[in-house]
């Protein structure tokens, strides 16, 4: 379960009803206030993953404040609470990281069968607080690397619908990626029409 120091995988943390409800809410955000778009990389390439944020707009600068003129709706209170419970589940309810965990942004990623995410570090946040990842829909191969290079050593793990992964402590700045989706592996009755959703709850470290 503890894949590396601070990296805790909890398979099947979300029950089927919680998964279905999150899928419904992601669909509502995507068709309304938080459309899923292919991000364009600094070099001009288009990411195969489609993404949207709640709570903070990442464009055109990183994690702007929300407010007049910005699109992203605030992170719903129950998702903030879910994030706190996730960190408590991973590190124990008494852990300092669980006490002060107040995620102010949610990144929603959608992967179709061909989408991938290359090895990278998450360094856009000014906070080193843990990142909470929730997986929905098709399973994927998740590549968890080291903090020094985007290449080996790494481990390949399977992430399935309902899985929780918390990345904090020494794992917070590890390289990681999603080299492949496993089409057709979503649980029956989830209501996904193919593909994989990943929600990451984060603390940006910006003033409210
Ligand atoms: C390990 N997303 O959005 S979530 C990303 O499945 C991202 O969509 C992947 O990487 C996805 O940046 C992986 C798991 C994850 C998230 C943040 C991490 C793993 C991490 C930060 C540090 C180390
Ligand atoms: Fe990442």
UniProtKB/TrEMBL annotation:
Q: Does the keyword Oxidoreductase apply?
A: yes
- Give the UniProt keywords, A-Z: Dioxygenase, Iron, Metal-binding, Oxidoreductase
Needed cofactors, names only, are: Fe(2+)
Leader sequence range is none
Q: Where is the Fe2OG dioxygenase domain?
A: 102-205
Superkingdom of this entry's organism? Bacteria
Iron found in the keyword field: yes
This chain's protein is named Alkylated DNA repair protein
Q: Tell me the classification of the organism that encodes this protein.
A: Bacteria, Bacillati, Actinomycetota, Actinomycetes, Micrococcales
Q: What part of the entire protein does this chain span?
A: 28 to 235 of 259
